[in-house]
Amino acid sequence: FSYPCDQKSLRSATLLRWTKGFETTGVVGEDVVELLEQSIARRGDIKVEVVALINDTVGTMVAAAHESGGECHIGVIIATGTNASYMEDTSKIKYGLSKAITAYNYPEMIIDTEWGGFGDRSEADYILTQYDKIVDSRSEHPGVNTFDKLVGGKCMGEVVRVVLEKLTRARVLFNGKGSDTLFQQDSFPTKYISEILRDESGSYVHTRDILGELGIDHYSFSDMLLLREVCVVVSRRSANLGAAAIACVLNRVRKQNMVVGIDGSTYKYHPFFDFWVHDKLKELVDPGLKFKLLQTADGSGKGAALITAIVARLKKRNLKQQQQQQQQQQQHVTMVEQNVVEQITETKGNREQFMNGNQRINLVTNDIPIYDSFNGDIENGMIHLSTDH
C-alpha cells in the first residue's frame, strides 16, 4: 500500500493522504486494513487474512535482502512516483513509537521516508522551472508531492511535452508548426522518452514513429536531435535528483558495503536511468562509504510474499512456544500436587478427618509449614486440594 500512512502495528495503519493522482472518499483518516477486511467480509465468498500492511519500498528492501543473501539497508522505488525506506536506529526515532499498539523492543526499525513530499513546504523551489510549475498547476493535487513530480515517471513525459510546446510556439522546433495532439495535455507519455533514447545513433526509428503518433510530419533532422536532447535533459535531471535523495540516506546510515534495492518502471525501462543514478551517487556519497545498487524484478511483490511467509512462520513458532509453556506449567502443577499429596500422606497431623464419598476434607498439620490449612474433596480416590497460600 504505497501511500502515506500513520502505522501503529504490522497490520494497522491510518491513511494520511492519497498520492499519484488517486482520490476517493471515506478512506483518508481511516484504518485501511479494517476497511479492506470489512470489504472482504461483505463479499462473503472469499477468505483472506491480512497479516501485514507494507509500503512497496519495504517490499523492495526485503526482496533485495533475500536476493543479496544478506542485508539491504535502503529500498527505493522510482516508478510513477518515488519513495524510499531505510533501517534506522530505534533510539533516534522521535515520533510514532508512543502510538504503537504493542511495545517495540528492537534496536532498529524500517522508516518509510515518503520523500515524494519533499518540497511541499517550498524546500525545492530553487529547483523548479517554469515548466514544472505549469505541470504542477494542472495536476490533480497542486503543490503536493513535489519531489514525486520532479523524479517519478507520472509527470516526466508531461514536462517534456510542455517544453516542446513552448519551443514550437517560439518557432525553434518544427518550424513553429505543431499539432493538436502535441498541444494537448498528457499526450506525451513517459514511455516515449525511453523509446526515443533507445534509438541507435543515426537511426531515429522510434523517434519518427512517435512524431507520427503526435501528428507531426513536418520535421527536420535537427528537430529530431533537439527532441532527443530535451528528453535527455529532463530525464537526466530526474535521475540526478533521485540519486541526491539516495545519497542523503546513504550518508545518514553510514555503514560499510551498503546495499540499495531499487525497483520501479522508470528506473527499469529507461535505457540510461540506472547508469545516471549510479554515476551521480559516486559523486555525492561521502568518501569512504561503499554501496551497491541491486535492481529487483518485481521487488515490491516478492517482498510482500516474503514478509507474509515470515509472519506466518513467526506466528507458528510463537504458537508452538505457547503450547510448550502451557505443557510445562501443567507438568509443574501436577508435580506440586503430587508432592503435596505425598507430604500429606506421610504427615502425622494433629487432627485428621476423612469422610467417604464426595465429601469435604480438612487437614491441619504441623509438618507442612508452608500451608496453614487445606480444603479439598475426596473423589474416586483422589484428594483435590485448594489453598489461599
TrEMBL record:
GO terms for biological process: glucose metabolic process; glycolytic process; intracellular glucose homeostasis. Pfam families: Hexokinase_1, Hexokinase_2. InterPro entries: ATPase_NBD, Hexokinase, Hexokinase_C, Hexokinase_N. Pathway: Carbohydrate degradation; glycolysis; D-glyceraldehyde 3-phosphate and glycerone phosphate from D-glucose: step 1/4; Carbohydrate metabolism; hexose metabolism. PROSITE patterns: HEXOKINASE_2 (PS51748). Residues 1-65 form the Hexokinase N-terminal domain. One of its GO terms (molecular function) is glucokinase activity. It catalyses: D-fructose + ATP = D-fructose 6-phosphate + ADP + H(+); D-glucose + ATP = D-glucose 6-phosphate + ADP + H(+); a D-hexose + ATP = a D-hexose 6-phosphate + ADP + H(+). Its EC number is 2.7.1.-. Residues 311-339 form a coiled coil. It is an enzyme of class 2 (transferase). Keywords: ATP-binding, Coiled coil, Glycolysis, Kinase, Nucleotide-binding, Transferase. The keyword Kinase applies. GO terms for cellular component: cytosol; mitochondrion. Residues 74-309 form the Hexokinase C-terminal domain. Belongs to the hexokinase family. This is Phosphotransferase. It comes from Brugia pahangi (Filarial nematode worm).
